[in-house]
Amino acid sequence: MAGTADGREFVLTLSCPDRPGIVYAVTGVLAARGANIIDAQQFGSPTSKTFFLRVHLELAEGVETATGETGLRDDLTDLAPEFAMTWELHRASDLPAMVVLVSKAGHCLADLLHRASTGWLPGRIAAVASNHTDLRPLADAYDVPWHHLPVTDDTRGDQERAILALVEETKAELVVLARYMQVLSPALCEALAGRVLNIHHSFLPSFRGGRPYEQAYNHGVKLIGATAHYVTAELDEGPILEQEVMRVTHAHTPADLAAIGRDLETIALARAVRWHLEHRVLLDGNRTVVFT
Fold first, then answer.
1. Cys staple from 268: which of 30, 47, 178, 228, with CB 3.0 to 4.6 Å?
2. Strand order of the sheet with strand 9-17?
3. Which of these, 114, 66, 86, 100, lies nearest to 22 by C-alpha position?
């Protein structure tokens, strides 16, 4: 979607208590501005009684973009109190900045760098940071700035402040933990709430600790996978965006399982990053509504 328009295309996302008349009111605002709806998706949660809407729209021909956007924002601001509505409006042509955090495993970083360089990801990787130096050549190959931010128990606070400063400096809208093997503090999770994505194998919480694929092999698992989720202060308990799975058999060795797991991790993480950048994900408590 990014880069496909001359700046006249926008994505509107909103949520509010579910009740009749929401779509009528919103589309009425768009119609009054002469906006054309390219695509629209909606969902009413039967449990939280919340309504969710994503609209990909285009401003009318002949309308100056800045003027049209300002007018639309004013109209939505006026409408929101009537429905207790939370909303966001984003230009579809924007390429949001990302900061990627890694440790030593490079498969997710390599995949994200490639997808961003080819335009498959509607965003740009503004920086890669790591507590190790192993993957610097990979970032250098894509001309992405590299930041070495080592960490110990005694320096964790300083290191996390450096991460936050990097996010602010790059104006990053998203932080991706691409197999970053450090637990973020509650303070950093709060500072970046809703803006940090993580990937892990889907054995959690069954097989915690080291060598999870050997544990899986020893238990004779028949299904392995990967989970991409938002990061919260509760370890690996954040809202899930995407999961990918594959069936395996007794013939797969621990090394086979680990290789399959790496592939699944790259796929699930890439989809989650893309959906977040395209504003397809809305939070419904600890659940996500993902308009794909």
1. 228
2. 36-44, 50-58, 9-17, 86-91
3. 86
Domain at 97-290, CATH class:
alpha beta
Burial (CB count within 10 angstroms: exposed 0-12, middle 13-18, buried 19+), residue 154 = exposed
Q: Where in the sequence numbering do the catalytic residues fall?
A: 236
What are the backbone dihedrals phi and psi of residue 114, each rounded to the nearest 5 degrees, phi first?
Answer: -65, -45
Return the CATH architecture of domain 9-91.
2-Layer Sandwich (3.30)
pLDDT at 214: 92
For the segment 43-54, the average pLDDT, to the nearest whole number, is: 98
Token pair belonging to 213? 């694929």
Q: How far apart are CA 137 and CA 133, in angstroms?
A: 9
Summarize pLDDT for 94-152 with one digit per residue, the tens. 999 999 999 999 999 999 999 999 999 999 999 999 999 999 999 999 999 999 999 99
DSSP, res 151 = -
Domain ranges of the chain: 9-91, 97-290
For the chain, give percent helix, strand, coil, nearest 5: 35, 30, 35
CA-to-CA dists, residue 73 to 5, 55, 226, angstroms: 19, 14, 38
Question: pTM here?
Answer: 0.94
CA–CA separation, 155 and 54 (whole Å) = 42
How far is Cα 146 from Cα 127, in angstroms, rounded to an integer? 6
Q: Which stretch of DSSP H or E encloses residue 127? A: strand 124-130
* Strand, coil or helix: 289: strand
- Give CA–CA dist 127/48, Å, rounded: 38
Record the tokens describing residue 52, joined without a space. Answer: 């969710």
Whether residue 205 has a cis bond before it, omega within 30° of 0: yes
- Separation of alpha carbons 167 and 98, rounded Å: 8
